[in-house]
Amino acid sequence: xxxxxxxxxxxxxxxxxxxxxxxxxxxxxxxxxxxxxxxxxxxxxxxxxxxxxxxxxxxxxxxxxxxxxxxxxxxxxxxxxxxxxxxxxxxxxxxxxxxxxxxxxxxxxxxxxxxxxxxxxxxxxxxxxxxxxxxxxxxxxxxxxxxxxxxxxxxxxxxxxxxxxxxxxxxxxxxxxxxxxxxxxxxxxxxxxxxxxxxxxxxxxxxxxxxxxxxxxxxxxxxxxxxxxxxxxxxxxxxxxxxxxxxxxxxxxxxxxxxxxxxxxxxxxxxxxxxxxxxxxxxxxxxxxxxxxxxxxxxxxxxxxxxxxxxxxxxxxxxxxxxxxxxxxxxxxxxxxxxxxxxxxxxxxxxxxxxxxxxxxxxxxxxxxxxxxxxxxxxxxxxxxxxxxxxxxx
Length: 394
Description:
The protein is of the alpha/beta class. It is built from 16 helices and 12 strands.
């Protein structure tokens, strides 16, 4: 998608500045304020690597480990399995582990940003396990993903010899990670959860795609233009709400091709739709969600119970894990108000850090962060690394 390409291009500009300023700044500020120099240096090094598009940045960073990668499979119930990768820091004795989860994207564990982030975290001395969530790969937020997340936490715990591990979910995987940690079946396997651009209430986010407005916990309304990607994903997952039965399969194929960044193929596929179907598809392709607002709101209304089941909102009473929340201030896919809702809805005392930053665009570093923004991101990741280090050994 264009927003993804723009975010990746903008992140390259920050690389040298991260190298020169973030590492040095982290050392001195940490010495004065926190006394946790090692973790802050590792976190700064991690951010340097993630802000680069290269698989292995040529810029040397402090405290960095070489990383070994292994393709594997994760066994699920009923004899099913899903693809996974393990990123292991070389030469680290008894490293902790974290499960890293992709968002809604067809590439799943092959998504370049996920791979870059996994390598960056592993280079800081943490084993990273990335299982593929089949439902999110098919643009669906589905409760079945929580089994994959829970079994991934169990498998990684076994691999690193720990009682429990952390889970970090990007975008909608962040909300699903919180649901998994609140489920008694998996709660003991997950010591902490990091949500990056996570949702609290899928119904509320879906209404945002239709109205460009979303409720804040303080009773106010946040207005921002919703990214067109959101409406496409919503319709794709509920195709029968917008298209007649004879058009449904063709419409789903056309939207899938559009999401796969093949507009030519998508438009050609849409030519096979009925006249009414072609008219609705043209509105989607031309980003005229304003003319489809009634249909999008109807999807949210008719799917309210289904959306509630895959939402942390009202479903976190069993959560015992520590929680860390990071969100982009200008996120137009899942607005930053969702992190503020999560901070309110999580059990008292469970949220250890919640950062809404203009330096983040959905799940990507954006533009040139200020010195303060760089420090906030480095400190946030240092807290996460601290949780990894605190995992209790068997």
